[in-house]
Amino acid sequence: MTQFLPPNLLALFAPRDPIPYLPPLEKLPHEKHHNRPYCGIAPYIREFEDPRDAPPPTRAETREERMERKRREKIERRQQEVETELKMWDPHNDPNAQGDAFKTLFVARVNYDTTESKLRREFEVYGPIKRIHMVYSKRSGKPRGYAFIEYEHERDMHSAYKHADGKKIDGRRVLVDVERGRTVKGWRPRRLGGGLGGTRRGGADVNIRHSGRDDTSRYDERDRDRDRERERRERSRERDKERERRRSRSRDRRRRSRSRDKEERRRSRERSKDKDRERKRRSSRSRERARRERERKEELRGGGGGGDMAEPSEAGDAPPDDGPPGELGPDGPDGPEEKGRDRDRERRRSHRSERERRRDRDRDRDREHKRGERGGERGRDEARGGGGGGQDNGLEGLGNESRDMYMEPEGGDGYLAPENGYLMEAAPE
């Protein structure tokens, strides 16, 4: 069938080429021995340079030293720039400084979102304004947070300088001062190392915050007054706190005393109630004991001393009535064990008397029932035999009323005797 396949399919069944023969290697690479053995560095010592010809070692700069060096370089660069700008600075020839310097008001610490119209509305209350100049950054064009306001009259500027300092505009309190560049000789702005807008006078231990518009020489007296006022306020607050603590302690003591008195009254009431209940309980127990004793004596007295109605109680059952419970008797105090024995003894006596009465009633009922049965049998015998001597007439089981009914003479010849029910003859007249 393979002869009918096309050539491309027959090529799939064609055998591969035979593997070429390669001569075997004498030794593998890891089996070959090195011609030069390992050695130390002794042969190479002569190649090193002489230590006397070596350059001296250099010391590397640490990170702290590098930062300190850069800071010093920056300060020196800034000082050079300030000196250069200070030589060129002349406020009287500044093209931006226009108008009368004695009518111009300096406003600093202004919110960056505050507009010129908002400043005009806030400062027009002190007088008519001639011009407002807001300072912007030359590079970014954003406001720098201060402006110059020129009034038409000098008295309006003085009024604003006196009353507008610390005024809150758009959430920030502004700093108001006069224009010192053209009015104060030797004054320099803060960017050139001067100015009065700082808020620190020294290190962290003597820092004092102030508005920044007044001369620093006048702060000593103001600081002393401020310290005195602060100490006075602190002393007054301490006195108020101490007074409040005393009041709170006195209120607490009164409250605790009232609570103690109330608790003591409540406890006394409870003790009195407990005493009343105990007194009532003892009186009720004594009355109950006396009542049971009377009932027991009446039962013994009504029983006739030895009949079937009641039996004499054993000696020692009745507790001696020596006084109210709780008091000392001849045998000792009436303790809880003695009370329990008395209660058990009274309970047994009451149960025994009840059982005796029930037993007597059952005995009487059985006796009456037996008598009724015997009387019925005798009546039936007499009715059959015409009545003979020695027969029971059935009156044995009848009551007193029935016996009285049969006591009448029967036909004048005789009567029935109530003792034994026999027919007795009448006595001769």
TrEMBL record:
Sequence ranges assigned to domain RRM in this UniProt record: 103-181
Keyword RNA-binding included in the entry's annotation: yes
SUPFAM superfamilies: RNA-binding domain, RBD (SSF54928)
Keywords: Nucleus, Ribonucleoprotein, RNA-binding
GO biological processes: mRNA splicing, via spliceosome; regulation of RNA splicing
Cellular component GO terms held in the UniProt record: nuclear speck; precatalytic spliceosome; U1 snRNP; U2-type prespliceosome
An MF annotation (GO) of this entry: mRNA binding
Major subcellular site: nucleus
Record keyword RNA-binding present: yes
Biased composition (Basic and acidic residues): 60-79, 207-245, 260-277, 285-301, 336-384
Region ranges (Disordered): 49-79, 187-429
Compartment(s) of residence: Nucleus
Entries under SMART domains matching the protein: RRM (SM00360)
Compositionally biased intervals (Basic residues): 246-259
Record's compositionally biased regions (Gly residues): 192-201
Lineage: superkingdom: Eukaryota
Protein name (record): U1 small nuclear ribonucleoprotein 70 kDa
Native source organism of the sequence: Acinonyx jubatus
Gene name, Swiss-Prot/TrEMBL: SNRNP70
